[in-house]
Amino acid sequence: MSTPTDVARDHDWRVAGEAWSHAAADWACLYEHYAFEVITAIFARVGIGPGVELLDVACGSGLALRHAAAMGARTAGIDAAAALVQVARDRNPGTELRVGSMYELPWAAARFDVVTSINGIWGGCEPALVEACRVLRPGGMIGISFWGAGEPHDLRATFKVFARHAPVDHFRGMKRTNDIAADGVAEQMLADSGFQVVESGSRVSTIEWPDADVAWRALSSTGPALPALQHSGPAILRDAVLSAIEHRRDANGIYRFRGDHRYVIARKPRR
């Protein structure tokens, strides 16, 4: 297995950070709440509560940190996107937040009781799990989430639009990261990184937008949207995206999307 240093050398986390920073306010206010259901499930299983020290890896604009702090946890987070981290700082005064790489966490070994990563660790990111294991105390818990391969998957058509309008090399990279959706892959990644898998599960996520303009702003705020925006242009991409999601609009004009949202819980061995 590659070491965190090897992967950090081959993977420029700053590129990912720039992509996820391109529409940070829209992502923070219009999209990040998609993860509410899976955050609730993970927090219940990893023991978030008063005094627990939590690190959220790929923390985005800090939604999970807000929930953890409201439950009494002491929180820290890291993300590659400087603009998202700034929103997280504004939302979470007193939280220790860093801009940086999940492959080289800037914290000492055995610092945290819990590590979470909400759709931040994907296929090919095993060295990030090795780093997560390093900063966890023996017996500490980790919870990660990702999109599953099952139904419902109402946003699949949108992902396909972004892929078709992006450069070929980006499309291939997206396929590699989505390997984690296959049954057993996330569990094996955790086991190979030094963890004991405790539980796997899923929730159905739901996200809604009131009209086409808001839906477009939300969908185009994601990191994977940027290569397609740059490659094909906003006008072409907007038309393609809105055409692909028209069938998701209900009688009230609300665009509603549900998704198969998977999670895996694991423990760092005490010895």
Overall description:
Helix content is 44%, strand content 23%. It has 271 residues and is of the alpha/beta class. Strand 1 (53-57), helix 5 and strand 2 (74-79) form a beta-alpha-beta unit. The model is unreliable at 1-10 (pLDDT under 50).
Q: What best-fitting shape do the alpha-carbon axes yield?
A: globular
Computed over alpha carbons, the radius of gyration is 18 Å
N-to-C series of helices and strands: HHHHEHEHEEHEHHHEHHHE
For the biggest β-sheet, the strand order reads 3-2-1-4-5-7-6
Q: How much strand?
A: 15-25%
Global mean pLDDT: 93
Number of strands: 7
H/I helix tally? 13
Short synopsis of the structure:
This protein is 44% helix and 23% strand. By secondary structure, the protein is α/β, with parallel strands linked by helices. Strands 3-2-1-4-5-7-6 form a seven-stranded mixed beta sheet.
